[in-house]
Write the structure tokens for this entry.
Amino acid sequence: MSATVWPSLCRPAEGHAVSLRSALARVRAPRACARKEDAPRIALADFRNGYRSLDSFVRAHGIMLDFDTTTSRAQIIDAFADLAGFAHTTWTAGRWRVGLLLDRSVTRTRSDDEFARVQRAALDHAERHGLVPERGQSAAHCFGLPCLGGASYEHVELTGALFDVNDALDKFPKPAPLPPPTRTDRTDTYDRRLERAAKYLAAMPGAIQGAQGSTATFKAAVVLVKGFALEPGDALQLLATEFNPRCAPPWSLHELRHKVRQAVQRGRLAHGFIADRRVV
């Protein structure tokens, strides 16, 4: 089982594989850093040529979770003591990071994003124990290796069972296809609406984690499927290509698809409320 380490967040092309033993040694004995930005980054995953991107992602051997609200050591132990992995505090007081090791590696393809499904199971496990994990972290997300210099450091070695991948996939099956297209007659042509929707979306700020990013992404999806009356597939494509690159961190395709589905089902605004505006 291996991990990938980068010298810093801003050097995604310089990743190199390390053994899990080496990564755990860093958790047990972190090095000193003058600033948290100086900490190397790690992912419990393999990337082609060490380049950190979704396109280069090969497989994940573990799932890492961040807890940004004030979380105690006792809460971490209560939630994760029965699983295998590690947990440690981060530079900021009250923050914990947990790495869960999987009983088999997971991949992601266009038809089945195993990583996202297993990640959802890990998030669900944390939430069922009363914790509030961060969401929206893609398979290409990297995490700061622990370093000394910030808040007081603590770590916990988790010696339980490996996280059951097949059980996680059973609990979170592949999502159902998006609703079938429903074209409606409009004074504006559909292609023109697509063009207008892309321009409108470009003016919307990207979603920022910790700053109501989930709400911002839902609003963007509602603008597309309700405001411009786009087909769900076209809305998903625009979210992925025009909106997601401006998000920090970017959403996984699975999460964007879920936002589109929520917008179709829960969006309360009138169908075509932007498309029907007079274009001047």
Summary: Residues 176 and 261 are 10 Å apart (CA to CA). The mean pLDDT is 88. Residues 114-128 form the longest helix (15 residues).
